[in-house]
Amino acid sequence: MGRQLIITGLKLTDLSAPKLVVTDPIESAGSLLLLDATHPTGAWPAGVGASGSALRNVLWEKAKAVYGAGTEASLAASLSHAGMSGANGLLERSSKGGLHGLVSQSAGLVSAVNTPYARLSFGLELRKWLFNHPDNDLYISVWGRITRGYKSGAIDGTYTNDAASALIELNQGSGSQRFALGQKGALMNTLGSMNNNNSEKVTGPQFMNAASGGWSAAPATEPAIQTYQVCLGNVGANNTYTSAPMTVKSRWPSWIVYRVYVEDLTVSGRTYQQVHDIDYAQYQKHVLTAGGRYYGDTFTDPAALP
Staple 104 to which of 28, 109, 244, 274, CB 3.0 to 4.6 Å? Predict the structure, then answer.
């Protein structure tokens, strides 16, 4: 039997010192949400769940310690989707387990009454935390893969300019976006970011993150904070308005989501750069390197949809 040395009264003050990893290398006292489709501690169920199905928060116990309440079920995220069928859209799991959302780029198929989409939304405990701590520093990241780029340039005489779309967003409506990552780059009180505004136009692996030092203007009410965070297709973060011309809706990229992470840096005491370095190293290991969980992924060719 091994031995364990316990030193009472000892407090670790060097946040950069090595720590025992319990669940994931990114974990900290400020971890609020980790979605990872094939995480070793528990992968998502095979296939695509029904709209409204839960997505496991890998670090739910860390989140519970922050909130002082919650269960694995109540601290999970959720997946909602509609219209992802036929020539309009397709929602599937890739060969490596990522969530792949394909959407049509045909103006004749996408309209105000037909907007294929899927979105990942965080739970109400996280929304409550964000509302009650509006000035806390927050870090958000996503690992993914663009499989069909944003359709740029003139489509017709009605709509000729590129729209300011985002793949990830945290906002309270009316254009008040604390985070917007993707072709639309918006970040309040910037602490650091890795976001290429042309990222949606180029196919291939994608890593995006950012840290914000709080809202420029705190949300007036808790429900004002919109819970959808990562979007595939023509809804939410991708700026779908029912009054917008069809050509706006026919530009969106198709992409795969592998992993999403949210941390309260004020609680953890870590900096943007410290978390970025851990996060990006894991992304390189699992997405860009042979043997990684998401390396060499295959999926339905988006050209299968018009």
Answer: 109
